[in-house]
Amino acid sequence: MKELKLKYGCNPNQKPARLFMRNGGELPIEVLNGNPGYINFMDALNNWQLVKELKEATGLPAAGSFKHVSPAGAAVAVPLSDVLQKIYFVDDLKLSPIATAYARARGADRMSSYGDFVALSDVCDAATATLLKREVSDGIIAPGYTAEALEILKTKRKGTYNVIKIDPNYIPELIERKEIFGVTFEQLRNNVKITPELLKNIPTKNKNFTAEAVRDLIVSLIALKYTQSNSVCYAKDGQTIGVGAGQQSRVHCTRLAGGKADNWWLRQCPKVLNLPFKADIRRPDRDNTIDVYISDAYMDVLREGTWQQFFTTKPEPFTREERTEWLAKNTDVALGSDAFFPFGDNIERAHKSGVKFIAQAGGSIRDDNVIETCDKYNMVMAMTGVRLFHH
Which residues does the annotation mark as catalytic? Predict the structure, then answer.
């Protein structure tokens, strides 16, 4: 297929819209079900690049959960603890490696993943399709689908779920182009490889990266390569746990992503795990309610007397002191940045979310201040020398 007509572009008034190859060749994708739109394809193709690179870099099946051209989550297939199975709502499923990767990617930031576009590095199997069928999602791209998986996915969203197959051997041209306001931009594709070699320049006193830290920093940096800049990414256990995208100030990225990482950890607190939800509360409503519960906003819920909508009995507030005590137990978190940290305030904020390992480009006139702040907390920091801006 050389051209695919779309309903419209980013918005309904932007017609006509289509996909095609500038060189007149065949498109590397095939729509197996549904009618994906312009933004769906932007998410799908960025997400596919991310998971393809994660698989190449780690040797593990990889999955991504994209929303508005940035990852809400990305992960590789590291086995799930009982607690993570519960907070990801998969404790009743038998997961394959690729399904495990998606459960992690989706679970990183479940509120942001609502209505996501999924990418898998490997063939989609029945276990992954079963998991996907019960989540709110717009579509999926993968190098293939088992017959059973495809049949499951075709029943999703009353038969309209978007399923895209991509040629895993497709390699794009080295030069890429885009137009803005009638002006064509042209550049070499960002073909930089994210490997452990980028983590060799360690200016901090502590120079000891664990094997798990190296893996997590690779996950973080590859995710950042396909995240709208400025961007910062926290990672742990083979998955992102907080992505801060598209902020004009880097410290705002660090705060935004740190808040998401904190929420990921707070969801694992026994007090949150044991919330007395009513049996008929849907997963998205549970996600939203948990997000309210672990914040100060829960006090408003108690004052308004609306807790009965969600709970069988009234939960006690999750106090700031309890939250602080639980957050202090999160350790060995990895943090990547798509460019240099200009001030030590980013490191101070990262420390509050359990960060021990950092990878950033380096090259700021205040590198010394950033290094000193890392040394203050015995962190290990690598300066990669590689900027990963993505627009």
Answer: 67-68, 230, 391
